[in-house]
Amino acid sequence: MANDPNDTLPWRSALRHQATRGRRLPRAPHVGRPAWHACLPGLAVAALLSGCVVGPDFKPPDAPTVPEPARAYSATPLPAQTAGAAGAGGAAQRLAWGQDVPALWWQLFESPALDELIRSALAHSPTLASAQAALRRAQELYDADAGNKLYPQVNGKLGANRAKFSDATSPPDGGIFNLFNASVDVSYTFDLFGATRRELEGLQAQIEYQRFQVSATYLSLSANIVTTAIQEASLRAQLQATHEIIDSQAQALALVRRQAELGAIAMQPVLAQQTQLAQAQATVPALEKALGQTRHQLALLAGRLPGEDGLPEFTLESLHLPQELPLSLPSALVRQRPDIQASEALLHAASAQVGVATANLYPQITLSASAGFASLGLGNLFSGSSPVWTVGAGLLAPLFNGGALNAQKRAAEAAYDQARGQYQQTVLGAFRNVADALRAIESDALALQTQVAAADLARQSLELVNRQYAVGALNYLALIDAQLAVQQTRIALVQAQAARYADSAALLQALGGGWWNAPPLELSSGPAAFAPPASQASQ
Q1: pLDDT of amino acid 330
Q2: Which distant-in-sequence residues (6+ apart) come within 8 Å of 277 by Cβ?
Q3: 0.85 exceeded by the pTM?
């Protein structure tokens, strides 16, 4: 509930809350020091009857409005189908507008090994286990705060004291004595203006934040495994192409060396061919190092040690390029991205804190009661003459605090504005992610088509140069140039093929990865060699 900036009595706006509740109030304006003390009896009765909750009621932000859904991710209309090319990763892809992203989106690549690895990683990832533990912690903190504030607090007390009065103040028969007491104390603070409810609302929003963090971890883990597997497949293909080039150049070196031995040519072509072969061989260690590090990264993502057996190997041939890609409408994207939903939960928590700060401007009423027994002797503690009881009520009202409470309210409003800006930035970033992925899908399809043609032309050119060189129609420099062209186009072709797989994975990740269609995740557990969970650590 927002307070009227022209009203110096905040309780009047509190009573008007029933008429305005449910409407979105973006932020509560500043208020002056409350002047409620002249109307305290009516204030308490009205608050008890209305159950008023001050501060703004949170409403999820609306999705960005775009005049044409087809232009939500691009200034120009997207093609209905990408370009196609021959070979691995060359299939044309279609965009299915409004189609839902499947929960197990990585199965679109039709790799049983990849599917099995991701399922295993989801069951054993320490990162996912950590995110789930953070969610459990948020839930328990909510339960703890709700138990402390929603219900009366009942405590049992048993005490024994030995004391002596001062000679100047003790009664004539005073002196040293014992005092035994046993009692049950009850206290309850009324949530007149919704401070407790707003606090619990904020804690509930924190639970939602952690829940979406789990979904984000689930998405990030699965997407990282897919992209790492694609990178491994690309490196393996580059290594294979490099070894084939080395074999071809070794054959060429044997040819020119034989010609030099027969005196048909000088030694310069032999040295040039040896240099060319050595340069090709020098690229192998770097590729092997990258492949090894990629395998280590894949083991880490799967929750395994680098030396463990059973990690599958991936090639481009073992992956299938999805020929139809889902594309969410803009209105659906903001509900699908876990990072947007997590940012919205933080915005909700910030809104609740505005309500808490507003409620702190109002008085609090606490009821307390105590019943028990008190006696100077332990033997007659529970006798009929020793019962004691008290009933009381307390009022805590902010009269003067140097403007601290109003400053805290303004700070809460500023925190809400900060969270709102962060939410908007997250939404813009999400749309950019989708736009970048779509542009990459379109451009890399054209790039692969060009690379396929270039590789085919380079291969044909090398075959022609080899025949002409064998009969002496061309010099050795022409052969070297043709070999270099083949080497460059072969590696570029493999990289272009891998880029198409990676682009598809990037789009599916940018759309949210279908986590909303997935069943609830089981608790993750790391390898047995690692630290046990808290439930087992003390056993």
Answers
A1: 86
A2: 246, 249, 250, 253
A3: no
